[in-house]
Amino acid sequence: MSHFETDAIRTQTERSQFLEHSTPLYLTSSFVFEDAEDMRASFAEEKQRNVYGRYSNPNNSEFVEKICKMEGAEAGYSFATGMSAVFSTFAALLNSGDHIVSARSVFGSTHGLFTKFLPKWNITTSYFDTNNLDDVEYKIQSNTKILYAESPTNPAVDILDLERLGHIAKKYKLLLVIDNCFATPYLQNPIQFGADLVIHSATKLIDGQGRVLGGVTVGKADLIREIYLFSRNTGPALSPFNAWVLSKSLETLAVRVDKHCENALKVAEFLENHSKVNVVKYPFLKSHPQYAIAKKQMKLGGNVVAFEIKGGIGAGRQFLNKIKTCSLSANLGDTRTIVTHPASTTHAKLSEDDRLETGITGGLVRVSVGLEHVQDIIDDLNQALKV
Ligand SMILES: *Cc1c(COP(=O)(O)O)cnc(C)c1O
Fold it and tell me: How many alpha carbons lie under 13 Å from residue 234 in its C-beta half-sphere?
């Protein structure tokens, strides 16, 4: 069996008559048939071939095949965004009356989907305490179908024990769906711990250069078949151009993520020793409450560091205003280091109590550590921490 880096580079669609070395971009909305019989057999799915861009495209297939190899998954489907992957996965697998049990800390739009939109179709969600997995079993009902979580979480960088979630899902016959975006397939493979499906926003570290949006769901073939049938009818397909960019990006995922993690650990260690900083959360710092679990399930700690500035919400905003080299932006997983202040931006609409319940204090700052020279990142954070 070949290794991660080799699969990322050598998994490739068949060469065309031009014998290109690098996979070309297949900008075509449809594909042609030899004759009436070829067309009939293709539509009947007696042949595995491309028919129409909403169903499949060679660039999309290459991207999905790579992610499947990296995650140890049987099959997958690629989406225009991470959120279309999340939505289509739920919409394809759930019926009216079904119930989801989810960690309380999930990506903002996923939380919005659970609270504002899925209830329109009578699909309800209960939340368990992200830092207390004893709570999960209390939230399971007779109509629960899916157990859902992210690890590491956004923005508080909490870690959930995937193996334990796998056991609970098995015991109650639930589908375990993990959003593996923060870890990437390079650092963590949830299927190994019992996940049935793994979702990625490819917009983040998979692209890694802040250029395109994309998403993917991979896992058990029978479940992916349902997701595929839903998607080929509803149309959330990833564009071939973005698939081409993302498949190229995967070729360098391992080296990029190694460097992101090396820089992030140094930034976390710097912050931990800073007098203006209360708490630093980074999975591979010994002080992280779930350090042992992070070590068990992740190869490295990821690129996101959360920390709390002394002085609350005012100090957090002041820090952001003094940042020079790093960017203030909503994205993460870019080559450029990005700093955000969740309490005054992404989570500003939450009540103070709800914010604190998800670990978002007034002084919490999230840093998506990039690939600039680490000393320049640290110098910028250091000057912004000076009053
Ligand atoms: C960004 C993100 C998403 C959504 O992805 P988009 O590509 O922005 O739609 C989902 N989950 C997590 C954890 C994310 O960080």
Answer: 16
Direct distance between the N- and C-terminal alpha carbons of the chain, in angstroms, rounded to an integer: 55
Q: Using CA atoms, how far apart are residues 161 and 151, in angstroms rounded to an integer?
A: 8
Q: What are phi and psi of 43, to 5 degrees?
A: -65, -30
Tokens standing for residue 107 = 């990506």
Structure tokens at 385: 């921490």
The pTM of the full predicted model, rounded to 2 decimals, is 0.96
Residue 332 in contact with residue 181, Cβ under 8 Å? no
Question: Cα(82) to centroid of ligand 1, in Å?
Answer: 5
Is ligand 1 within 6 A of the CB of residue 217?
no
Looking at residue 25, the DSSP 8-state letter turns out to be: P
pLDDT digits (tens, 9 = 90+) for 324-379: 999 999 899 999 999 999 888 877 777 888 787 777 888 999 999 999 999 999 99
Ligand 1 centroid–CA 198 distance in Å is: 13
Q: Which of 114, 151, 181 to mutate to test the pocket of ligand 1 (most atoms within 8 A of CB)?
A: 181
187 near 302, Cβ under 8 Å? Answer: yes
